[in-house]
Protein 1
Amino acid sequence: MAKDALSLAWQDMKRRHFATAIKRLEAKAEIYDENFEYYLTLGIACLYVGDIGAASSYFQMARRIKLTDTRLLLGQAAIFLRRGDTARALQYYLEVQENDPLNKTAESAMEFIRVHGNYDTICRWVDTGRIEQFYPPLGSNPDKIAITCVVAAAFVLGMVFAFIFFPKGQQFTGPRADLSKLELSAEEKSDAKEKDLSTQSYAFVLSNKEINKRYNDALQYFQNHRDNSAQIEVNMILNSDASVAVKKKARLLMGYFEIPDFDSITDVPAFSDVAAKPAVYLDCWVNWGGKISNALTYEDNSYSCDLLVGDDSLARYEGTVKVRFDSTPVVDVSKPVRILGKIVLEDGSVILRGRAVYQSVHN
């Protein structure tokens, strides 16, 4: 049985052949004049190919016919989210939740805005395509399902061979990056200490063996995705009597460290440890919780506040740290908060360079 253009277009879109779907539908413009599904489908296809102007136009035409369709609201919310207009996007997502309280796309998008809702992060998600997870869902890609089945079969076969050829319990973790050029040479290992100690004082005086161990530990922590622990070892080296050559490679290693998110951060230092020895923890990332006070938004849209570090009710109060954001985050200062930030020094005091804010939707 022959299928209509809309049905065929949706099949194209499920296979992620958006250009084919657009071409197919545009050829039927006269037939589908003033048809809601036609405008909506074209708008979604244009959104996925990145033609935001066309997507917005088609969504507006669809909206003249029907106002509360969940797919339409998600599409329009996605356009505002891409532009960094999180306030407008939230309005649409709240409208989705009014009509469809269990909608996972709206829930995920709102959580993203709370945790990562700064403009820089949104730009990166648009650039990498990760923003598409908040677009109107298309359903499973039948081509991808077929490929997945083949890959799964190959994986099972590979596991069988791995079980046969590798000893039980042996773990293999592939290198995160090739850091062979950062390994210490034989000369650097034997002369790991600075020879002339009269020119300056050092926070830590380490033996040749200790310097080598800390540097090797830093490399290993990096490969194990434990960048905070690697950073601590680097800081110990940089504040010690290690040689210039070792310190230079330690600084180069820092360039490989990644910016974490709330899910990937590990080895978070305690507030008390940072307060006691700030030099050891500089450039480490934390996700400290507590409550916000003294919040200020400046003319350039930057933002500062004091984070009262502790539990949600501050029954366990650990201390206060200044936090600065380059752009104003979406945050309710009356509710408990968790801030992802980098430990830096400003005018001799420890502050957090804020990156993201998380507030539970259940509070």
Note: The first strand starts at residue 285 and ends at 297.
Protein 2
Amino acid sequence: MIDNAKFQQLKDAIIAGNIPQLALMMISLALDMRSSDIHIEPEERLVRIRYRIDGSLQKIVEYPTNIHPAVISRIKIMSNLKIDEQRIPQDGRCQVTSKDNREMDLRVSTFPTVNGEKVVMRIQDKSRKIPDVTEIGLDGNNFTYVMEGLDSPNGIILTSGPTGSGKTTTLYTCLNKINTEDVNILTIEDPVEIQMDGLSQSQVHHDIQYDFATGMRAALRQDPDIIMVGEIRDRETVDIAIEASLTGHLVLSTIHTNSAVETLTRIENMDVPEFLVASTVQVIIAQRLVRKLCQSCKQPAATPIGADPVLGPQIDKALLGGVDVKFPTLDKALLAGKAFFVAKGCDQCNNIGYFGRIAIYEVLRMNNELRKLILDKTPSVQIEKAAIKLGMITLEQDGLVKCLQGITSLEEVYSVARKVEEYV
């Protein structure tokens, strides 16, 4: 919900041409509206400010182009960028403390366009509370498999998904679960987004050749029990991660793939032998973020989804694919009723119908049957089919269960999850 007083102050600053106040209120309002990014976009006649809230961009206000150079200069000064360089992109950062003493890290990126420089500011809440492992959306077999992976004395746990899908939050939540006084946990990150007590956190610096691989090598000389590396991007990093897992360490990391099974293919494409993949990878977590229905105004769907000639059979197929076994605590009446909810909109959610986000998960837990398929160089389609048969919940299934629970909508789930062609 927009704070009308702050919104008016932002508009007043634009009218008065008060650039410092404009920059301050723009950031302050973004914090209050739970924005993850601020977009300042010059167009031919106006400059618009948009906030990314719960994954979707919303236009907030516009200002005239004649004050845009001053706004850009103000932001560049805040983030230690060159104010006289407008031809090339620049990256910087600054720290902001809100009135309620929340510390924010702003990652600032400028981009030259034909209408002037565009700026995107990514907001990182340094005082953000790390959620408990029971609060991030893991349920049923997904929860069980992740807990089993975290209990492993060694091996690799990977989270996969596109940028902005909550992978880092999941990793921090897992680290928070296993962060005890009797273990030594080291992290190599780019950047360190949340500082946690009990962890030795290191930030890479590419300009001085301190990258993930270099950090991993150094971490292995620090007597670690658990290592978290921000991202596996190349053969060198994955080789060191495998070496660490084979020598008795638990390694957590992220990787960019579309599904849990495709992660195996991605690692093999880095020329890692199948026997090393099979022996080291313990758990692969694929995830996406979906918007949560506003609990103040959500309403049941007017027409039964089962009546849809295309979507109805697909939903039946997904929900009959062993969901009652994979989610042992799920109310069976929800499965039988297939009652879904839709967004409506009210003052609480700024008439959008959604408020907040939650992750949907697909967790692959390695076992001997899957290891044999990997060693036999079985196609990923067959490995996925076997994993589903052995209890893996697909992104589609997890999303549909959250729809039945009234947490999100079908529209949100199918905007991020593919329809699985075959369930066993």
Note: The CA atoms of residues 92 and 190 lie 14 Å apart.
